[in-house]
């Protein structure tokens, strides 16, 4: 959460001259987004978010993300809509960085989601999967099962220093996941990072989904598994069955799961937990000097994995039997 | 620039229940303010800034700052207006910190002020001095000449490591300033920190003054001297005569300087530069481990002092002869 790139009033005014969104009233750097610099932007035409993409974002991927947001917003999904400039282009450059203006969404991220909020999330997630079904671009998930072994090998030697026995536990998970990872499940555009920070509510009404910068083409049920991890556990690893039940029921009210997806749910949840354990572990072990961002605790996902290792059926996650 | 205190949706909703400003729509931590945590807050009633005061702010001073902002806003000055809760109280507590909601001001801070913007600043500064003339509270300036010697002694041994010869230069300035600091000038409420970040413009129109957390009771002309330092020099120490002329003329269009103030302007400018040199130097030498804030370069003020040491008359700063 930081402003990595300072933007002067002169640079911003020159940038905005190419857009048809009125005169500049105010802009504030906002302390959100681990990867990019974001400004809240207010013009005479309304409220926007201005994002400058920093080094970790692959510029080649930006057209996928931006076209996807535009596609989803056009189909009525409440997500940021990229604003095209007068030349019809959404992706610009500001202060030497790729930069985009998107519409601002009202709403608040919840810390401790209620079952009702989980149900609303499930419905929105299925709505996203439906709205993306006719999206024409494809982006492989470069953080799926094939990436986990290499990720782990870069952190393996230091893993037990983070938590005794962690390396052995991860080796066990990897063996199971690499051998049994499901293939052939229904696939399409998934969000792949729908944590509570990326979902806005006004009261119990879901008002928007943001941060599509991990979106990719993968199994729909894997997206649901990510949400079960992100929304239905406490930091100590306690699973909230009522939240899981509401999340799955909300999803299936819009898009019922196939029998294969139901059967795969436990291993997908275990894989999703390992994915976040591994990326957090690598970040934890590689905090750059002078970092403005506090790394997230990888062990939250080690504790969730304790639950997943013992789960065998979708019912364990709250799906109606 | 950082969010030092995280505020959950639940804590904020409970806090807002005591206020009559509608329902919560969104809030974002903003990367502004070196000392405090600030959120942009949007409710069904409008836009606000929520400030949580962190450790460096003396809680005993908060009533002075908040009453002053209310006093000035009531007299038509464009500054943040503290919002009182249903109990009539502006100062609350949130997440264990003193906390206040103030009205949001539109506008943009300029990096390189034009003479027209300097003139507008001068008018606003004199307007602030006039609007504060019947303010009933008093707060001594604890960063004036009596504080500079003690501040310097805490940094003296390391000063030459920051810039060769710096300790000698500061000793010379201190001797001149302590011997010749003017007494008996017209006095009242001054802002004392009116840097470009604390002044908003929409185009060339000044739309607001913010950040009154150094405000105190001191000589009006010292406030003008701070602005001359903050607005009329480049980082390399170059003085812009046209900006200084416009700033002083704008000020005097509202409140003409007395002959004593005119005569004192060079030494006041030199003192103001030393004040910022010294506080920046102390911060520079005492960056805490894990600091989220980059300290400001003290040597910018060393370079301005080169100019001030050679200035003898108000005309050197652009005042009409």
From TrEMBL, chains A, B:
It comes from the Bacteria. Pathway: Amino-acid biosynthesis; L-threonine biosynthesis; L-threonine from L-aspartate: step 4/5. Its EC number is 2.7.1.39. Residues 27-257 form the Aminoglycoside phosphotransferase domain. It catalyses: L-homoserine + ATP = O-phospho-L-homoserine + ADP + H(+). Keywords: Amino-acid biosynthesis, ATP-binding, Kinase, Nucleotide-binding, Threonine biosynthesis, Transferase. GO terms for molecular function: homoserine kinase activity. CDD domains: HomoserineK_II. It is an enzyme of class 2 (transferase). It holds the Pfam family APH. Belongs to the pseudomonas-type ThrB family. This is Homoserine kinase. The gene is thrB.
């Amino acid at each position: 959460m930081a402003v990595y790139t300072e933007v002067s009033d002169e640079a911003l005014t020159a940038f905005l001259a190419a857009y048809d969104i009125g005169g500049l009233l105010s802009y504030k750097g906002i302390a959100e987004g681990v990867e990019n610099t974001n400004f809240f932007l207010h013009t005479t035409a309304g409220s926007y978010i201005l994002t400058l993409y920093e080094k970790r974002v692959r510029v080649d991927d930006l057209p996928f993300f931006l076209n996807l947001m535009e596609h989803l917003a056009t189909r009525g999904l409440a997500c940021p809509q990229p604003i095209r400039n007068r030349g019809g282009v959404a992706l610009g450059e500001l202060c030497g960085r790729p930069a985009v203006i998107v519409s601002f969404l009202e709403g608040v991220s919840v810390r401790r989601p209620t079952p009702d909020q989980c149900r609303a999330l499930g419905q929105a997630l299925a709505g996203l999967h439906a709205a993306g079904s006719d999206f024409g671009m494809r982006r492989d998930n470069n953080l799926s099962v094939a990436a986990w072994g290499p990720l782990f090998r870069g952190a393996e030697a230091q893993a037990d220093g983070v938590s005794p026995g962690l390396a052995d536990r991860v080796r066990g998970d990897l063996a199971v996941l690499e051998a049994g990872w499901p293939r052939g499940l229904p696939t399409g555009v998934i969000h792949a990072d729908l944590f509570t920070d990326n979902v806005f509510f006004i009261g119990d009404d879901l008002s928007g989904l943001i941060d599509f910068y991990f979106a990719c083409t993968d199994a729909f049920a894997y997206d649901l598994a990510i949400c079960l991890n992100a929304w239905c556990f406490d930091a100590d690893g306690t699973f909230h069955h009522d939240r899981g039940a509401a999340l799955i029921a909300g999803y299936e009210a819009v898009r019922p799961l196939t029998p294969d997806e139901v059967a795969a749910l436990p291993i997908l949840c275990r894989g999703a937990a390992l994915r976040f354990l591994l990326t957090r572990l690598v970040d934890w072990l590689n905090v750059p000097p002078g970092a403005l961002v506090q790394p997230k605790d990888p062990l939250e996902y080690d504790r969730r994995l304790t639950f997943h290792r013992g789960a065998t059926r979708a019912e364990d996650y709250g799906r109606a039997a």
